[in-house]
Amino acid sequence: MSSRLTQRFEACAREGRAALVTFVTAGDPDHDTSLALLKALPAAGSDVIEFGVPFTDPMADGPAIQAAGLRALKNGQTLVKTLAMVRAFRETDTTTPVVLMGYYNPVYIYGVERFLVDAKAAGVDGLVVVDLPPEEDNELCLPALAAGLAFIRLATPTTDDKRLPAVLKNTAGFVYYVSIAGITGAGSADAGAVAQAVTRIKAHTPLPVAVGFGVKTPAQAAAIAANADGVVVGSALIDALRGTLDAEEKATPATIPAVTRLVSALAEAVRTARPAAAE
Amino acid sequence: MNAPNSFRTGPDESGHFGMFGGRFVAETLMPLILDLEKAYQDAKADPAYKAEMDAGLKHYVGRPSPLYFAERLTEHLRAGAGEGLGAKIYFKREELNHTGSHKVNNVLGQILLARRMGKPRIIAETGAGQHGVATATLCARYGLKCVVYMGALDVSRQAPNVFRMKMLGAEVVPVQAGAKTLKDAMNEALRDWVTNVHDTFYCIGTVAGPHPYPAMVRDFQSIIGHETRAQMLEQEGRLPDSLIACIGGGSNAMGLFHPFLDDPHVKIWGVEAAGHGIPSGQHAASLTGGRPGVLHGNRTYLLMDDDGQIAEAHSISAGLDYPGIGPEHSWLHDTGRANYISATDEEALAAFQLVSRLEGIIPALEPAHALAKVIDLAPTLPKDHLMVVNLSGRGDKDIPQVADILGTRI
Ligand SMILES: Cc1ncc(COP(=O)(O)O)c(C=O)c1O
Question: Which of A194, A257, B129, B193 has its CA 20 to 30 A from that of A273?
Answer without folding.
Answer: A257
